[in-house]
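TA notes. Do not distribute before section.
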Amino acid sequence: MRRLTANFAQRCPRCLLTRRWCVCPAHREVRCALAVDVLMHPREQFRPTSTGHLIRRVLPDSRQHVWTRERSLAADAVRRPGRELWVLHPHGQPPPIESSPEQVQVLLLDGVWSEATAMAQAVAGWGRLVALPMQGTSRFWLRTQQDGGRFSTVESLLFLLQTFGLREAHDELRLQFELHVYASLRARGRRDLAEHFLDGSPAAKAFAGFLAQLHARRPLAPPPP
């Protein structure tokens, strides 16, 4: 516990990155008509790589709930009145064509594959289980995606925003996501991989000024004895 506390003391309390690579000065809020909730596995609370934290930070109207096996979460504590609850999961059905984002609340399951599966079973019956036609390659280079077609929590939300035609929210959220991945790679000392990631990222142009400052910044030297 002491080691964990010391580790997090070196991190920004908001973005959870080491202070040297904090991305908070480039923070931009993302607002959209869709109601977004994240059901987070307890292990994700301490993982700086968790994109559930990113969603909560960037979407001010989103909410975060922690799921545990020992303390069940009531559906009524999550459901928002006047909206149909969608739980995103690959085993669900395609989204209804006639739905609009103003009528929908999405519940995203934040955890590794086995954790998300357990959470999906726990919330079965809360709402409509929805699967999106997600294709391509994950840009979440911080964890090994074991099989093709697996994406991070925030990428699932990006696909949903695209499905609803919420282009502005999609593009802004993607920029924040890609900046977070890049800075996380740099924080891990993976400079070559980070630069390769940035070469194919729209964040390189969108945050050119901030990135220049980020690269020039150095941690403060300790005061002389």
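Switch to the second chain here.
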Amino acid sequence: MIEALATVDFGAPEKFGSHVFRVEIPAARTEPVVIVEDYGYRGHEAGIPRDEERVVLLRRSWSGISDVARREFNDRLKSAKTATGRWRTGTNLVDRLLGKELCVLAWAVETATDEQLPVTCSRWAALRPEERWWLFSMTVAEAGLPEDTQRGWRRALFHALSDGEKPAPGRRRRRPVEDDLFRLPLFKDAE
């Protein structure tokens, strides 16, 4: 029989030296939340640092995403028959893959307005985990540090996930894709 893996917080392996993400939530409500990728035993090998800060998030932005992330992660942990977690002041450990997904959400909201936060959370929740992992990999390759806020994929995540507002009244909606599926503008005379 396979022994169940002991976990803490949000699915992070309990054993020391695992690759996890740390979410540092300070007691002061004005201080930012910091998400750090901790490479565990892999750190300090082959040029890999011990850990890297991935995002420093304003407390207002963290408050806008924390419940969505908690619900999403706990639903997945329950389905895997693993203990669930909750955010608390101090250090919160997050499974390596869930941490990547959390970074994608945090990067998407770091410059969002209060009105854009729910839209971004909704669009992030609609992504499959594999899509979030891919977005993390693409983003971290060129803009994965806190100071990279306005660069490359980091900026693209903001635009892709925050641009979901309904059109203003009287504004035309785009045609459904099916209308264009077998018709291209080049061939409209051939019909």
